[in-house]
Design brief:
Blueprint (H helix, E strand, L loop, with lengths): L1 H16 L3 H12 L4 H7 L6 H40 L18 H15 L3 E2 L5 E3 H4 L19 E6 L7 E4 L4 H10 L4 E10 L10 E11 L4 H16 L6 E8 L2 E14 L2 E4 L8 E12 L1 H6 L8 E8 H9 L12 H7 L16
Parallel strand pairs: 1-5
Antiparallel strand pairs: 2-4, 3-4, 5-6, 6-11, 7-8, 8-9, 8-10, 10-11
Helix pairs in contact: 1-4, 2-4, 3-4, 5-10
Length: 367
């Protein structure tokens, strides 16, 4: 028994003197490992008689438990000491500016979408959405666009091959060419008065510096009693002044033709040349100025109102539409629409917006 007591005292002393985790691990293996001295003593209990095991077993078991506890206590102490040393060595100067790291940016199209939503919300409009895969009835027929209209041709519209809407009425399926179907669905599913804007992606078979097969559009619709062309002009004038953040916005309305509005007007905005750059604002007829078309609009055609199940003698309204990408180009000085969709990080870093630049009317929609 004296040998076990001496062994216990020696092992515990060695464990207490271990100054690294590696040294402590070596002691653990030497004592409790497969070929360790404590393990060897435990193996001697097997051949013993019950009487011998009852006599010699407890000191050996006490040896194992004491060594195990000493190892655990020393390991915890060494780990705490290592942590304290690391914390003492790795000091952070909190007065230094933090590294911000890579920063993303809000795409100009997303920013302009938010700006438009903010402006029209202040005018009492809500945002309406609809499917991008449409049938030709909502996209064309309900909008008074005849079967022979060029817009229905394959070279302008992306049709799905041999696909109908599944209702058995033979409606062809396509990628919507404008967000006007949202206006149709809103009039069919809701009750007037209606004041909505319909932003979203649209698709046309066209591609050059100012056209892409997919682009973004926003349309507006008002249906109410006693609506006139004067309401339309005031709305567009108020919208464009807020968007371009200028009070000298001058509009020119030109007669035009759209199947879904009657009368129809193209809306031009005056601009001036400043250091060779076109700046929106001012009278387009003034020296150094000009006119730029930015919107198509008009009073909603009676046939469109009837197609949606409303009485055109009771309800009137106006509609307008413009390209979101085009508005972004005019406001922020971009000259090639294709760059919007190239995914060039240099372009996005230059023209992108901070996530904190949330458009507000009080702070400036283009903050």
């Amino acid at each position: 028994m004296t040998e076990i007591a001496n062994l216990k005292a020696g092992l515990i002393a060695d464990i207490a003197a271990a100054d690294t985790l590696d040294a402590l691990e070596a002691l653990r293996v030497g004592a409790l490992g497969k070929n360790g001295v404590v393990t060897g003593l435990l193996k001697t209990l097997g051949p013993m008689s019950p009487e011998e095991r009852l006599e010699k077993g407890p000191p050996i078991q006490d040896l194992r438990e004491s060594v195990t506890a000493a190892l655990a206590e020393r390991k915890a102490a060494l780990e705490q000491a290592a942590l304290d040393a690391k914390l003492a060595a790795e000091k952070i100067d909190m007065t230094l500016p933090a590294d911000s790291g890579p920063q993303g940016s809000v795409h100009p199209v997303s920013q302009v979408m938010d700006e438009l939503a903010e402006i029209f919300a202040d005018l009492g409009f809500s945002v309406a959405t609809g499917p991008e895969i449409e049938d030709d009835w909502h996209n064309f027929t309900a909008l008074n666009i005849p079967e022979t209209h060029p817009a229905r041709a394959m070279h302008d519209t992306f049709y799905f091959p041999d696909t109908t809407d599944g209702d058995g009425d033979g409606k062809k399926m396509l990628l919507r060419t404008h967000t006007s179907p949202v206006q149709i669905r809103t009039m069919m599913n809701g009750e007037p008065p209606i004041r909505i804007i319909a932003p979203g992606r649209v698709y046309r078979s066209d591609s050059d510096a100012t056209h892409t097969p997919m682009f973004h559009q926003i349309e507006g619709l008002v249906i109410d009693k006693g609506i006139t062309l004067g309401h339309l002009k005031w709305t567009l004038e108020t919208f464009l002044k807020a968007f371009f953040e200028r009070d000298d916005i001058v509009l020119r309305l030109r007669p035009s033709y759209f199947p879904f509005t009657e009368p129809s007007v193209e809306v031009d905005v005056g601009y001036t040349l400043v250091n060779g750059q076109r700046v929106i604002g001012g009278d387009g007829d003034a020296p150094g100025g000009g006119w730029l078309e930015v919107l198509g609009s008009g009073m909603v055609n009676r046939r469109v109102i009837e197609a949606c199940g409303l009485d055109p003698d009771e309800w009137q309204g106006f509609a307008f539409g413009t390209g979101v990408d085009r508005l972004a180009m005019l406001k922020y000085g971009m000259n090639d629409l294709r760059a919007f969709f190239d995914g060039d990080l240099r372009w996005l870093k230059h023209y992108g917006f901070s996530a904190l630049d949330v458009p507000t009317l009080s702070g400036g929609v283009g903050a």
